[in-house]
Amino acid sequence: MKYLVAIFLALVLMSCADARFYRIKGDMTADFRIKDAYRVILYTSANGYHGLEMTEDNNSWKTKIPAVSSFRYFLTVDGRTYLPNCPQKENDDFGGQICIYEER
Protein backbone atom coordinates (compact mmCIF):
# COMPACT_ATOMS: atom_id res chain seq x y z
CA MET A 1 0.00 0.00 0.00
CA LYS A 2 2.84 2.43 0.82
CA TYR A 3 4.29 1.69 -2.61
CA LEU A 4 1.04 2.72 -4.34
CA VAL A 5 0.81 5.91 -2.29
CA ALA A 6 4.40 6.80 -3.24
CA ILE A 7 3.66 6.26 -6.93
CA PHE A 8 0.49 8.35 -6.71
CA LEU A 9 2.33 11.24 -5.01
CA ALA A 10 5.12 11.11 -7.60
CA LEU A 11 2.58 11.31 -10.43
CA VAL A 12 0.79 14.23 -8.81
CA LEU A 13 4.04 16.14 -8.33
CA MET A 14 5.14 15.45 -11.90
CA SER A 15 1.83 16.73 -13.25
CA CYS A 16 2.52 20.11 -11.59
CA ALA A 17 5.69 20.62 -13.61
CA ASP A 18 5.72 23.62 -15.94
CA ALA A 19 7.85 22.04 -18.69
CA ARG A 20 8.17 18.50 -19.95
CA PHE A 21 10.03 16.93 -22.86
CA TYR A 22 9.51 13.37 -24.02
CA ARG A 23 10.26 11.09 -26.96
CA ILE A 24 7.88 8.84 -28.82
CA LYS A 25 9.45 6.70 -31.57
CA GLY A 26 12.38 9.09 -31.92
CA ASP A 27 10.29 12.26 -32.15
CA MET A 28 10.59 14.75 -29.30
CA THR A 29 7.62 16.67 -27.95
CA ALA A 30 7.73 19.80 -25.79
CA ASP A 31 4.78 20.11 -23.39
CA PHE A 32 4.16 23.16 -21.20
CA ARG A 33 1.33 23.80 -18.73
CA ILE A 34 0.29 27.42 -19.12
CA LYS A 35 -3.10 28.74 -18.03
CA ASP A 36 -5.08 31.52 -19.69
CA ALA A 37 -2.81 31.91 -22.73
CA TYR A 38 -3.97 32.61 -26.28
CA ARG A 39 -0.71 32.08 -28.18
CA VAL A 40 2.48 30.29 -27.14
CA ILE A 41 5.65 30.09 -29.24
CA LEU A 42 8.71 27.99 -28.34
CA TYR A 43 12.19 29.20 -29.31
CA THR A 44 14.96 26.62 -29.08
CA SER A 45 18.59 26.27 -30.10
CA ALA A 46 17.60 22.82 -31.47
CA ASN A 47 16.30 24.58 -34.61
CA GLY A 48 18.29 27.84 -34.60
CA TYR A 49 15.69 29.68 -32.49
CA HIS A 50 13.04 29.68 -35.22
CA GLY A 51 9.72 30.09 -33.40
CA LEU A 52 7.52 27.00 -33.18
CA GLU A 53 3.79 27.65 -32.75
CA MET A 54 2.36 25.46 -30.02
CA THR A 55 -1.12 23.92 -29.95
CA GLU A 56 -3.26 23.96 -26.81
CA ASP A 57 -5.43 21.30 -25.23
CA ASN A 58 -6.77 21.94 -21.71
CA ASN A 59 -3.93 24.33 -20.70
CA SER A 60 -1.31 21.94 -22.12
CA TRP A 61 0.68 23.54 -24.95
CA LYS A 62 2.59 21.13 -27.21
CA THR A 63 4.81 21.08 -30.28
CA LYS A 64 7.29 18.73 -31.92
CA ILE A 65 10.95 19.74 -31.81
CA PRO A 66 14.13 18.34 -33.35
CA ALA A 67 15.26 15.31 -31.34
CA VAL A 68 18.56 16.40 -29.80
CA SER A 69 20.01 15.58 -26.40
CA SER A 70 20.81 19.14 -25.27
CA PHE A 71 19.42 22.57 -26.14
CA ARG A 72 18.47 26.00 -24.79
CA TYR A 73 14.92 27.36 -24.91
CA PHE A 74 12.43 30.03 -23.90
CA LEU A 75 8.84 30.89 -24.78
CA THR A 76 6.71 33.84 -25.69
CA VAL A 77 3.21 33.80 -24.22
CA ASP A 78 0.80 36.25 -25.80
CA GLY A 79 3.78 38.22 -27.14
CA ARG A 80 5.73 38.42 -23.87
CA THR A 81 8.92 36.54 -23.07
CA TYR A 82 8.21 33.73 -20.62
CA LEU A 83 10.70 31.50 -18.83
CA PRO A 84 9.04 28.37 -17.43
CA ASN A 85 10.14 26.56 -14.29
CA CYS A 86 13.22 24.68 -15.42
CA PRO A 87 15.92 22.92 -13.39
CA GLN A 88 18.82 24.53 -15.29
CA LYS A 89 19.15 28.15 -16.40
CA GLU A 90 21.93 30.39 -17.62
CA ASN A 91 22.30 34.08 -18.37
CA ASP A 92 21.57 34.96 -21.98
CA ASP A 93 23.18 37.66 -24.14
CA PHE A 94 20.33 40.11 -23.51
CA GLY A 95 20.46 40.51 -19.72
CA GLY A 96 17.90 37.79 -18.99
CA GLN A 97 17.99 34.05 -18.54
CA ILE A 98 17.34 31.03 -20.73
CA CYS A 99 16.43 27.44 -19.84
CA ILE A 100 18.74 24.50 -20.56
CA TYR A 101 17.53 20.99 -21.39
CA GLU A 102 19.96 18.07 -21.08
CA GLU A 103 18.78 14.54 -21.63
CA ARG A 104 19.73 12.10 -18.91
Poorly predicted sequence stretches spanning 5 or more consecutive residues: 3-17
Outline the biggest β-sheet: 6 strands, antiparallel
Helix content bin: 10-25%
Strand residue content: over 45%
Structural category is: mainly beta
Number of helices: 1
The CATH homologous superfamily name equals: Immunoglobulins
Instruction: Write the CATH fold name.
Output: Immunoglobulin-like
Count of domains: 1
- What is the second-level CATH architecture? Sandwich
Task: Compute the number of strand runs.
Answer: 10
CATH class: Mainly Beta
Average pLDDT: 85
The gross shape turns out to be globular
Q: How much is the radius of gyration in Å?
A: 15 Å
Order of helices and strands: HEEEEEEEEEE
End-to-end separation:
30 Å
In short:
Keywords: Hydrolase. The chain is 13% helix and 47% strand.
Feature tags:
single chain, 104 residues, mainly beta, Immunoglobulin-like, six-stranded antiparallel beta sheet, four-stranded antiparallel beta sheet, 1 helix, 13% helix, globular, disordered N terminus
Describe the structure.
This protein is mostly beta strands. The protein has one domain: Immunoglobulin-like. Helix content is 13%, strand content 47%. The chain has one helix at residues 2-15, and strands spanning 19-24, 27-33, 40-44, 52-53, 55-57, 60-65, 70-77, 80-82, 89-91, 97-102. Strands 3, 4, 7, 8, 9 and 10 form a six-stranded antiparallel sheet that branches. It has a four-stranded antiparallel sheet with strand order 1-2-6-5, with no helix packed on it. A hairpin with a 7-residue loop joins strand 3 (40-44) and strand 4 (52-53). The termini are far apart.
